[in-house]
Amino acid sequence: MCGIIGIIDLSGVSKKDEAMVRQGLALLKHRGPDEEGVFKDNQAVLGHVRLSIIDLSSGRQPMVDEELTVVFNGEIYNFLGLRKELEALGHKFETRSDTEVILKAYREWGPDCVERLSGMFAFALWDAAKRRLVLARDRLGKKPLYYTVKGQHLAFASEIKALLPELDKKTLDPEALDCYFSFGFVPSPKSIFYGIKKLPPAHVAVFSENGLSLKRYWEIKFSPRPYTLDDALEEFFTLFEKAVSIRLISDVPLGAFLSGGIDSPLVVAQMTRLLDRPVLTNSIGFDDEKTSELPLAREIARHLGTDHREYLVKPEAAEILPGLIYHLDEPLADSSALPTYYVCQMARQNVTVALSGDGGDESFGGYTFRYLPHLFESRLRKRIPLPLRSTFFRLLGSLYPRASWLPKPLRLKTIFQNLAVSDVRAFYQDLVWLPVDIREEIYSAQFKKELDGASPFEWIYPLYQQVKELDPMSRAQFVDLNFYLPEDVLVKVDRMSMAVALEVRSPLLDYQLVEFAGKLPLKLKVRGNTGKILLREALKKFLPEGLISKPKRGFAVPEAKWLRGELKPFLEEALAANDSFIWQYLSREKVKVLWQKHLSGRFNLGVFFWGLMILRLWEKEFFYEA
């Protein structure tokens, strides 16, 4: 893994531009502590910090090939096959690195070369002869890339902090903040700051004298086919073994994360078949029997014969939160960022690369707590006339008390509210962590005015409707793969792993496996109350049924409990802070009322107050000058 940064100015770069790139490299050093390099010509300054993984001796960057220069963050897993193809076309190679393959592939196929790359990547390639910069991100958005444009001047970087000197003034984007209060993250192409954007996943951008143009080069397709279980398993194992195998290529020590679920045990089991040594596995748990996965992960590790390590996260571990905010870059309300950091930190003590099980839930039907109720409610809607639903259930939803502390099937208020609206609106209501009526209540009049009618629903509707021919669960998966996965899950993994200079590889996010999952019929994803049917059947090849059928405990911290205890001072500081911009957007008095309800146990608003705490810590780290 690496960090990249650069400035292209078609009218000529200045000493100030070079200084900004070098300053940015210092801010990105945690992403690549091994080496640092800078390239400069009349119109470009490109910088790179390197975490050496492949071709330790000659893979240095920026890498130059005559008029072409590239800085690259990530791994191209199919680089050996591409290298052979390019050599057959007459290209000569001077290194063993995947970086050089990008240069030669661009020389042969131009910006369309991204369609041939399989991996996790963000790169910037300066073509001095054509006076153009090519920016690209991998299909699923595993590696980040921010940019800002002013006329003939473009700056880019792996993290937003390195681009802040490009802004005349730090100004929050109210729509981005509204998304944060709704989803817990800021979706592409927005960032939390006006003037800085994210290149969306599966996009290539070309910057030249004609301006900046973006093109999507890949899209997830759902086209269910009548697979039998045996045929699906055969095709899955063919693709999965290849996906794991190519992610074992490394010139540095390699291990894996292990939970008590389905996905990471499946990855570890496949690794044990391909490696000639015990896999070094790492697990995280909590000092709470109801949430900790350590006992089950320990059992799985024993059965697979791994070299297993464990770490117990306790509430006082949250004292490191202010430091983690620096690495998150933008506010992210996903509390599992904390244990993710710890498992990465633990793994980094012994390895430089770790394989994970990320991607199984979104592709193979794992979020049953959302998917199954959505499917059930959709079937009910078809049986109840619209006039009855929109009046009777809307009324019941407004009258029924909120019971967020109950399991979802018992939250009748939520069910009534969902039955009163369309499938897409119900899915949106399930996805947001701060309900629409609460946001309406606590938003300030000025904030509502700045939003001018804009709604986070506008991010969900086009995606859900794009696949309107599919069943409701597949439509929900499509949204998650295009929205929740790249904007939350993969951001969390990238930032927390890069904070400790650990490379994380995810075989289940191999794009060919994702495409295969899109062809599976619903019956191979869910059955009754159980999800990930195909992956469970695959895991039976490696583990006994007793270990597979045990319920997964989850990876999120018990934030509601912690916020009523050890983290309470963080929230009370935020509520009392007169200098905070938060109270320009929210009503402090109404938020205090919700806080008292949360403390009393009448409401479980732990996710919201965790997000509020993160926003305050982020504000103190990024928004104000030191």
From TrEMBL:
Pathways per UniProt: Amino-acid biosynthesis; L-asparagine biosynthesis; L-asparagine from L-aspartate (L-Gln route): step 1/1
UniProt-annotated catalytic positions: 2 (for gatase activity)
Binding sites annotated in the UniProt record for L-glutamine: 98
InterPro entries: Asn_synth_AEB, Asn_synthase, ASN_synthetase/amidase, AsnB_N, GATase_2_dom, Ntn_hydrolases_N, Rossmann-like_a/b/a_fold
Name this polypeptide is given: asparagine synthase (glutamine-hydrolyzing)
One Pfam family, short name: GATase_7
Gene3D superfamilies in the cross-refs: Glutamine Phosphoribosylpyrophosphate, subunit 1, domain 1, HUPs
Family per record: Belongs to the asparagine synthetase family.
Residues bound to ATP: 284, 356-357
Catalytic activity line of the entry: L-aspartate + L-glutamine + ATP + H2O = L-asparagine + L-glutamate + AMP + diphosphate + H(+)
The entry's keywords: Amino-acid biosynthesis, Asparagine biosynthesis, ATP-binding, Glutamine amidotransferase, Nucleotide-binding
EC number: 6.3.5.4
UniProt-recorded Gene Ontology molecular function terms: asparagine synthase (glutamine-hydrolyzing) activity; ATP binding
Domain Glutamine amidotransferase type-2: 2-210
Gene Ontology BP annotations: asparagine biosynthetic process
PANTHER family: ASPARAGINE SYNTHETASE (PTHR43284:SF1), ASPARAGINE SYNTHETASE (GLUTAMINE-HYDROLYZING) (PTHR43284)
Site (Important for beta-aspartyl-AMP intermediate formation): 358
GO cellular component terms listed in the entry, alphabetical order: cytosol
